[in-house]
User: Fold this.
Amino acid sequence: MAMSNDTPTITRDDASKDTEALGLDNATGYRAFRVGSFGFRRDEYFAHITFPSGNHVMSIDAFLRALMRDVAWGFFYGTVNFDHVLGTVNHYGTVTMFAGKFNDAYTQAGRDHEELFDSAALMAIFKEMLADWTNEGFDPFAAPMETGLAWGGKNGANPDAIGRERVTAKRMVGLPGDTPVRTDEIGFPVNRQFADVPQDAPTVEPEPGFENEVSAYNLFAYLSRSDVTWNPSVCSVVGESLFCPTSEEYILPIDHGNDRAEWFLQFSDEIDWDVKDRVTGKPRARVKMKAGDIACMPADIRHTGYSTKRSMLLVWENGSPKIVDLIASGEAPVVPVTF
Assistant:
């Protein structure tokens, strides 16, 4: 498969599978991990990352929230920047893990480092790290006021939180045999910040023989029952067009570097977006989206968002497997419209 982000074509068989879990730290009770020549260990407050040209430190709660998204999203579209140094680039079969690749200071000093991994091998060690480093009571997918603390020594685990299945409807939420509408009965109460959202449902009366083809549901009610934040879930699919609504509160715990354009439709409340150049990280724009606003994030940027009040956002994705190579080759533009 050809790869984006100016990476030469490398087959999956050429990618490294060299990962291992190391011994327990007697002081903290956590395991350390080796991923190629990257090293990962945590203490009571921080994740410590080493690589051949340097080392890096992240607050453990921020690291686990970013790692949770990378795992749950299958490395997502394009680049998942854990912060301004560490991250991954998805090549859809292989994944580059990097330190400083998209940081001007690192690249100019020749201190950046990257390695290519087989996607399945990297996902397996990331899941093992996430399970070992997430303590009982801490949910990396939840808003800060809805979860416990990430700090301290090893204290149990939280497999239910980190093992959630991401919603990926085949056609649409609520259709027979597809992902169900959220209800109290299946463990999805209305979120504390969406208590005023009406829970009425549309009446659907399909003609006989079309019961599996005609459906509708209250999307606002569905989102009001989301138990996670910053987790776009595929709720309807038409060809390669994916509607991925989500509820947002506090901070998007990654800087997402696009490899295709993304449309954002703000359904409720407000989100402030920091938009930067995808490669250098230099600021490009500051965008405030209010209810009813629509914006497109180009394919050559990275972005992170801030939402004080839990808000509803629809992310409209182009799921085409061809679009990445078309953009990388210049055959498709990085923006959908040029004014």
Q: What stands out?
A: The CA atoms of residues 96 and 116 lie 4 Å apart. The radius of gyration is 20 Å.
